Amino acid sequence: MTNLIEYEDANEEVRAVYDDIRATRQTEYINNFWKALANHPPTLRRTWENLKEIMAGPGEIDPLTRELIYIAVSVTNGCDYCIASHSAAARNKGMTEQMFGELMAITGAANMTNRFANGYKIPVDEIFKQ
């Protein structure tokens, strides 16, 4: 199991990232994902900056939809940690159990039809090409 770096055991570079996570998320909690990445501070910093920009930065996709997309990809990739953490974030942004059920149905259907399309090597219709 990976060593989880707590705030009080972290160096200055890690503490700076933890402080930014806390400020951005308006919480004192640092989850285990970030504590694990803190074993390599450049990866922690780079990953946090990327995720912060994508998940909390400006854009046309609303925060709940961003979380729903993250959950769907995490389900497809089989990442239990990401499913749990982003499901909690989505619930905090308004996701209901009905929405989660619909998301799972869409994710399952997309995975099934993607595999059919790839397996049959179905050519893309001209009308779909842009």
Automatic annotation (TrEMBL):
Domain of life: Bacteria
Gene Ontology MF terms: peroxiredoxin activity
Transmembrane segments: none
Residue ranges of every copy of the Carboxymuconolactone decarboxylase-like domain listed in the record: 42-120
Signal sequence interval, chain numbering: none
Pfam families in UniProt: CMD (PF02627)
Record-linked InterPro entries: AhpD-like (IPR029032), AhpD_core (IPR004675), CMD-like (IPR003779)
Protein name as annotated: Carboxymuconolactone decarboxylase family protein
